[in-house]
Design goal:
Length: 141
């Protein structure tokens, strides 16, 4: 199994931890995504960043240590022309507030902050190629 954003040494350590790959296209996975997204949007609005970010995606990754858990990805993007975009450099206070609330959710195993620009990436996530994997900052819980 390939773990994007992880070095070879990190991948070998991850493969030893019995990470579960889940099918999240179900009501439970969608409810988890909506709950995490609501928290992210509340904090972005509270800190006044809602109007500063062109688009924010909160994504639910099916990588977790427990069958009913997941990883959450934050993908804030800034763009002036919709053709290109850069990840939004959100202030650490905003990220800290989001993190504090997301780690309290009983189903969250990890949180990622996607810092990939467009191009090479897209605003949304699609199938990644080995040539252009996403770049992540990993927040450990």
């Amino acid at each position: 199994m390939q773990y994007w954003g992880a070095s070879y040494q990190e991948q070998s350590q991850l493969s030893q931890t019995q990470v579960k790959v889940l099918n999240l296209i179900n009501k439970e996975g969608l409810d988890q995504t909506r709950e995490a997204d609501a928290i992210v949007l509340e904090e972005i609005k509270r800190f006044g960043w809602y109007e500063e970010i062109f688009q924010h995606l909160t994504m639910n990754l099916p990588y977790a240590l427990c069958p009913d858990h997941c990883s959450i990805v934050l993908r804030p993007v800034d763009s002036e022309d919709v053709i290109t975009g850069k990840f939004s450099h959100m202030h650490h206070q905003v990220l800290d507030a989001i993190m504090e609330r997301l780690v309290q959710l009983p189903f969250v195993d990890a949180i990622y902050y996607d810092i990939t620009n467009k191009p090479p990436a897209k605003f949304f996530w699609a199938k990644f190629s080995k040539k252009y994997p996403p770049f992540w900052w990993v927040f450990s819980l």
